[in-house]
Design a protein that fits this description.
single chain, alpha+beta, Four Helix Bundle (Hemerythrin (Met), subunit A), 2 domains, 6 helices
Length: about 200
């Protein structure tokens, strides 16, 4: 028998990791803007990132529907079932069967046709639809409101005589003001050598 509780936790963890990745990707220039606040967004990243994440979203939807169907049937499904077949099998359990099918239909050209791209708005809309269905199937918990942050300290003195100053950098995600994902590092600027 499939361990439903473990599978649910693993799927919800994957879903949350995906949502975190989306917020980080949307803020791909967040650290650069600390150095240059008027730096424009990168149009290449703003085309490629939502497209790749859209394809990943469809894969998560596939995993979620497969998990739901396997739990409700109590047995594993054939690996050859594609997303269209999974949507069809889960149709009676879905809030709006057209929503996941729309994601599937939009995903196909993104995954298989060079030059096809999704926008951040396309991705956001698809995430909202997928969340509604996954939540309706009790596969995910409430959606956290992840907020991106990036910080740079002022220049600080350093004990090393070869270092002019150092700065601390931090970035990551917060929920309700608490850091849930964070990275930090120290950047040191060497003193100019006397010629």
């Amino acid at each position: 028998m499939i361990d439903a509780e473990t599978n649910f936790k693993e799927f919800d963890r994957s879903w949350r990791a995906f949502l975190q990745t989306v917020v980080l990707a949307k803020n791909h220039n967040g650290l650069s803007r600390l150095e240059s606040p008027f730096l424009p967004r990168d149009p290449i990243a703003d085309s490629i990132l939502p497209t790749l994440l859209y394809v990943q979203l469809a894969s998560l939807l596939d995993d979620g529907l497969r998990l739901h169907l396997e739990q409700s049937k109590g047995k594993a499904l054939a690996k050859r079932l594609n997303l269209a077949a999974l949507i069809d099998l889960a149709k009676s359990d879905l809030i709006d069967p057209d929503a996941p099918d729309s994601i599937r239909k939009s995903r196909n050209p993104l995954a298989h046709e060079p030059g096809e791209f999704a926008s951040w708005q396309d991705l956001d809309s698809a995430i909202a639809s997928a969340y509604e269905e996954l939540r309706g199937l009790n596969l995910v918990n409430d959606r956290p409101d992840y907020k991106f942050f990036s910080e740079r300290s002022g220049a600080e003195a350093c004990d090393d005589p070869g270092i002019a100053f150092k700065q601390e950098y931090k970035f990551g995600l917060k929920v309700d003001g608490e850091v849930v994902l964070g990275l930090s590092w120290t950047s040191q600027v060497a003193r100019a050598s006397a010629s």
